[in-house]
Amino acid sequence: MNLSFLTIRSANRIRLRPILITVAVLSVILCTALGFVSIKLSQHAVAEEIRKTERAVTRLRSENEVLLAAVTRLSSRQHLTSLVAQSKIAANYITADRVARLTPPASDEGDSATRTALNTVPSRSATR
Q1: Which residues are CB-neighbours of 42 under 8 A, at least 6 positions away?
Q2: Among 16, 60, 96, 128, which is least packed, fewest CB within 10 Å?
Q3: What average pLDDT is seen over the chain?
């Protein structure tokens, strides 16, 4: 009886080692490529967020300039005087009993006028 078909031939064996090395190298390359793509995507997302923030800051700065111009215009002496003249607001003088002082008012010895602040800078005649 011929049993030659039952024997395993070594010439037809699949070599497993080169296949595993190739799969390992390809998986490392694939993981590296996926990591690179994910990093690029996150960089793009962060850059887009920065652009949005910069646009918002620019918009808010321009709005702030407009509002500051409006505040300046509305608080100008000319505008307030016109509002008083039109009787839209009332201007009252501040009386002495409405002013809160932490220390008594300082007076100048020379002309005995009441001052609102002490002059700490020496006069020119004292330095010569």
Answers
A1: none
A2: 128
A3: 82
